[in-house]
Amino acid sequence: MYSETTIVTAETSQQPLQEGQLVINVGPQHPATHGVLHLVITLEGETIIKIEPHLGYIHRSIEKMSESLTYRQFIYVTSRMDYLSAHINNLACAMCVEKGMLLEVPERAQVIRVIMSELTRIASHELWIGAMAMDLGAFTPFFYTFRERETINDIMEQTCGARLTMNYMVPGGVMYDLHPEFVARVKSFVVQFKSKVSELEDLVTDNIIFRNRTVGVGVLSKADAISYGCTGPVARASGVDGDIRKRFPYSGYEKLQFEQCIDTAGDSFARYIVRIREMYQSIHIIEQLIDAIPEGDFQAKTKAVIKLPKGEFYTRVETARGELGVYIVSEGGTTPYRIKYRSPGFSNLSALNHMASGSKIGDLMATMGTLDLVIPDIDR
Amino acid sequence: MFLKEYISDVYQGVRSLLKGMKKTGYYFVHPSEIITQQYPDNREQLHLPERFRGEVVMTHDENNEHACTGCTACELACPNGTIKIITKFDVSPEGKKKKAIDTFIYHLELCTMCNLCIEACPTDAIKMAQTFEHSVFNRNLLTKKLNLPNSKIREGVE
Q: What is the predicted ipTM?
């Protein structure tokens, strides 16, 4: 006999509606699109009473899938989680395997990893600014931000061989050495970024419509940011100094000079400003390293078949969205016994109900946009 | 007081609008700085970098010889089961048996271009090609046989 299960729908998951309340569904647009988020919103007039995100539309069971892949193979799947910071996801996995193997990564590989991570962070924030401005109705910034992102993608394509899902990190270092033109191209990108980012400030930051729609909208207090587990720019805009690169430095970040960008306002505009300042810090990190890439091996010697000793390993990195944790339980074999990813998007989304309740539905787009949600990262 | 705020709001609104229009005007009179390319029209200028991962191919030299020994290292390295190697035994004139590939099957539709097979190959028999237009009307065409007909393993490759 089949036991009766309750199917959760927009109707059954809600509290009984009061008079004058209305339930609307925001999304999903189409099940085959890359980011399908379904929000069930209870409204009273135009005021949001409650938001309930429904997840699972693009769940691919990456964690379960990784259990049947070897320690070399499972890294590429994580590019498909947060596809905008694919490099940093791969880095987290590679670092976790290295931690288990007790492997020293060569100096050169570490520097390459940091430069690539920061380029990815800039590309991710560039895309976010364009997409968020488009959510708020401004189409033009999208094209301006994509110009800079395109330059980064070209650099990635030349060195890593792919534009989005690079799979450049391997346990012990990186897959190939840098392309001979890499240093020159990154330097020219730094110059281009510095001269062109003022366009963005003109178009977005100083725009009166943008300011009116973001300042004071979707405020998240410091205490709430901590209790909801928010990380990354969302938490830093609320005043939480939780940058993993500063708190738990990895891959040589402890030797670099950079600021942790913190704002205290906690509103949508603060989250925007934090990301803009973070791009400048990333450029600052790249400038420090690009002239001083040490010579040597780009990959440590590893055995063809990697086996981790029995035990549990956890590493965390700062992706463009926040803290990504990789937790591997090993039974001593060639494949992990269990893998858990702590993804930043999931925790940041959980704060949405708190941030948007009580505000108008028109402000929801600003709040949601500045959370920088990447749905494959939430669903995995 | 109200009037003053109202006028300042209008002034700021118009100013930020003009600021944006100035940028648009700048690119209108500087068309050389626009980098947008129309895709099917730019095929002639479109050069993908040599590391670009488009498709796995097996390199053959002019004598129709390849370097694949049939060790199945790529098959084991592949996370998706994209590669299947069927081996056979070649019998040399002296009566010695030697392992060789019969068919190197490559499923393009399953491939994620992760490059792990190329890294695993001990003899550099396979490499990534820079093709990217893979659309076909029949799905069966995506399953490919990489070794050419009547091709042999190159002398000296172990």
A: 0.81
